[in-house]
């Protein structure tokens, strides 16, 4: 194995963290795809029926990434981990959580829509193979250019119930508030596609059902990027960004997941 000699240790921390966030998004996409495999197939079935060369290459890549990031983490100051006690919400608390999510999405849409504008002609042309013309015509986008969408008011109440691993809104690249998409910094193709998938999910499922599925998914997995609604958005955005893009209808993909009960 050849050694790697870093060439940019004196570079800008800003650029470093931009590249780190990009790598993090790629890793989340891979994590989401792997999580879906874990839900659908046992390790025995994968070992017996999976294509051996792909399995070995995947294992090698995962091991190399784990070694690299573990080396970095081991050089960071470490705090003693606290014992994790997962809360067990009541049905009333779950219903309250669903109401909070739905109300927040509605309120944020009303707040940011006056600041948002339509997609450009070039963006519509780029996305027309994946989304309906009607949806693309309705969508409005806003770029905050370094500002951040604030933490929702209900977060404090949710944390008081014991839920500490809520999505870090201010660190997300893009957020979908129904048909209004807000970028914490500037627009990116990945962030736009990801957010549009959520807009389609909301359109197909209805806001209340979307909020219900999101809350139940979060309570089951305890991390936002393994919520099935998020898994699908990460997965489809990765397909869109491949060197040779795979063409597909996002609405059809969403309806397939609904019919198969994958949310």
Q: What is the count of DSSP helices, taking H or I runs of 4+ residues?
A: 11
The average pLDDT score comes to 83
Which percent band covers the strand fraction?
Answer: 5-15%
Q: Using the alpha-carbon principal axes, give the shape.
A: globular
> What's the arrangement of strands in the largest beta sheet?
1-2-4-3
Q: What is the count of distinct domains?
A: 2
Terminal Cα span: 42 Å
Secondary-structure class: mainly alpha
Q: Radius of gyration in whole Å, from Cα?
A: 20 Å
Percent of residues in helices comes to 55-70%
Q: Biggest β-sheet: count, sense, barrel?
A: 4 strands, mixed
SSE series = HHHHEHHEHEEHHHH
Task: Name its key features.
263 residues, mainly alpha, four-stranded mixed β-sheet, 4 strands, single chain, 2 domains
Description:
The chain is mainly α and 263 residues long. It folds into two domains: 62 residues; 170 residues, no CATH class. Helices cover 59% and strands 5% of the residues. It has eleven helices and four strands; from the N terminus they run H-H-H-H-E-H-H-E-H-E-E-H-H-H-H. It has a four-stranded mixed beta sheet with strand order 1-2-4-3. Strand 3 and strand 4 form a beta hairpin. Helix 4 crosses helix 9. It is globular, with a radius of gyration of 20 Å. The N and C termini lie far apart (42 Å). 22% of the residues are buried.
Annotate the secondary structure layout.
Layout: H1 13-40, H2 43-49, H3 52-74, H4 91-112, E1 117-118, H5 121-127, H6 133-138, E2 140-143, H7 154-160, E3 174-177, E4 180-183, H8 189-205, H9 207-221, H10 228-240, H11 250-260
Parallel strand pairs: 2-4
Antiparallel strand pairs: 1-2, 3-4
Helix pairs in contact: 1-10, 4-9, 8-9, 8-10, 8-11
